[in-house]
Design a protein that fits this description.
Length: 414
């Protein structure tokens, strides 16, 4: 089989889908542009600050742009919030008090959140230690839908936050589009207007034309080295929400009484603005790469989720490689086609906190940025690899070809 011909065949099958993605990119670019213009963004907003950061206009305007984009009262957008987990933790500690109950509407949360909540390990300062109880409702209909009645039944008088995780993360469940959250958001708010609905929006920004806050979620949280940083933001995270939510969260960001008024950044804000401007385009490049990958491996007879032509709610593509040899060759092929650390050869290793060995490819400009092309997998049957990101579709396509060549070389391609 000619591998280039295989990729071309897969690409032909994907072209009608790409047209739909470009339409969404156009609408989201319009939304970003409108937000920049409404806030009259100018070169002066790039200027760094030091010390307390009082009157940091770059920080304040960036937060207003995010608030507009998410249809919210306010936002926190900070390089000082280290990552997505830090922002999610900040949100939970802002909204929850001792004695309160946290309810997950989408089953088990992302790995790192288990530690924050106190479900796994005993990290000092977790929610459990602070006296916050937790329970979860599993998704229904073969893990594709939120069990709305189940969530309503699980509400307790002390429930303060309902958590919805948009992305599958690394679980074999469906990711959720914002409109698929509308029913549970309305039902919970109707039953309990005092409850905050918080969405872990990681990997989901700019996939659709609206975000969960447009459907009534109280707060959306995500990482800037994923979708909304557009591949340019060097670090940080955001939270966008209602005033009622943000005034509590900003007290934990800095201190009660200080909130968002302080916080300097000694480098330029320019990459945050430019990254946000690029984000609808970058996300489209990553989606095209995911869809092409799905189609290539479907043509080779492998199982994928989502299927190449299924609606998408995040940038992650899962592919069952079936054998360890194929999985390792795939990941090594992605690394070999990376602009950074392309000569590194990933091997399975014992990663702290994981039961199986893990193998990962990440040859990125921003360390650990998963809006850049990256792949990772636990070494266990059915040897599923999770692929995400890609700053340009051309690079994604070259990297997939590189993976196919590695597979051919180690004899794992039929
Ligand atoms: C990436 C991610 C997080 C947070 O991860 P960080 O690595 O801390 O940025 C949380 N939830 C989901 C679903 C994610 O994809």
């Amino acid at each position: 089989m000619d591998l280039t011909a295989l990729v071309s065949q897969a690409e032909r099958d994907c072209l009608p889908l790409f047209a739909g993605l470009e339409e969404t990119e156009m609408k989201n670019t319009r939304r970003v542009l409108d937000a920049f213009q409404a806030e009259d963004i100018a070169t002066r907003h790039f200027a760094p600050t030091t010390g307390y950061g009082y009157d940091d206009i770059g920080r304040d305007a960036l937060e207003r742009v995010f608030a507009r984009l998410f249809g919210c009262d306010a936002a926190i957008v900070r390089p000082s919030v280290a990552c997505g987990t830090a922002a999610l933790s900040l949100c939970l500690f802002g909204l929850l008090l001792p004695g309160d109950h946290l309810l997950s509407a989408t089953g088990s949360p992302y790995d790192t959140m288990e530690t924050v909540i106190g479900l796994s390990g005993s990290a000092p300062g977790n929610l459990k230690e602070m006296g916050v109880s937790y329970s979860q409702v599993e998704m229904c209909e073969n893990q594709t839908k939120i069990d709305v009645q189940g969530v309503l039944n699980a509400l307790r008088s002390e429930t303060k936050v309902v958590l919805i995780q948009r992305s599958r993360g690394y679980a074999w469940r469906a990711s959720l589009r914002p409109e698929e959250m509308a029913e549970v958001i309305q039902a919970v708010h109707a039953a309990r207007p005092d409850v905050f609905i918080m969405v872990d929006n990681c990997y989901g920004e700019f996939i659709c034309e609206k975000e969960p806050t447009h459907f009534g979620a109280d707060v959306c949280v995500g990482s800037l080295i994923k979708n909304p940083g557009g591949g340019l933001a060097p670090t940080g995270a955001y939270l966008a929400g209602t005033n009622r939510a943000i005034v509590r969260i900003e007290a934990r960001l800095t201190a009660p009484g200080l909130g968002r008024e302080v916080g300097s950044y000694a480098a330029s804000y320019q990459p945050f603005y430019q990254g946000l401007f690029m984000a609808p385009h970058t996300v489209t490049q990553a989606l095209k790469t995911s869809i092409l990958a799905a189609r290539i491996f479907e043509l080779l007879g492998m199982k994928t989720t989502p299927a190449f032509d299924a609606p998408r709610a995040d940038i992650i593509q899962a592919i069952e490689m079936g054998t360890p040899e194929r999985l390792v060759a795939f990941v090594q092929g992605i690394q070999a086609a990376s602009p950074i650390d392309g000569s590194a050869v990933p091997e399975p290793w014992d990663m702290p906190g994981y039961t199986d060995q893990v193998i990962m490819a990440a040859g990125t400009f921003v360390a650990g940025a998963s809006i850049e092309l990256s792949a990772d997998a636990p070494m266990r049957a059915p040897f599923t690899v999770y692929l995400q990101g890609g700053l340009t579709y051309a690079h994604g396509k070259l990297a997939l070809l590189s993976s196919l060549e590695k597979m051919r070389k180690n004899g794992s391609l039929a």
